[in-house]
Amino acid sequence: MSIFFNPDLASLEAYTPGEQPQGMKYIKLNTNESPYPPSPEVAAALSNEEVQNLRLYPDPDCRQLKEALASMKATDIRNIFISNGSDDILNFAFLAFAGGGGRKVFFPDITYGFYQVFADLHGISAEIIPLQEDFSINIEDYCSLPFSGGLICIANPNAPTGIPLTTEDIEKILLANPDKVVLIDEAYVDFGAESALPLIRNYDNLLVVQTFSKSRSMAGARLGFAAASSPLIDDLERIRFSTNPYNINRLTMAAGIAAIKSGEYFMDNCAEIQKTRSMCVSALESMGFEVVPSKANFIFVCSKLIDGEFLYNELKRRGILIRHFNKERIRNYNRITIGTPEEMDILLNEIRKISEEVSL
Ligand SMILES: *Cc1c(COP(=O)(O)O)cnc(C)c1O
Question: Across the strands, what pairs with 321?
Answer without folding.
Answer: 28
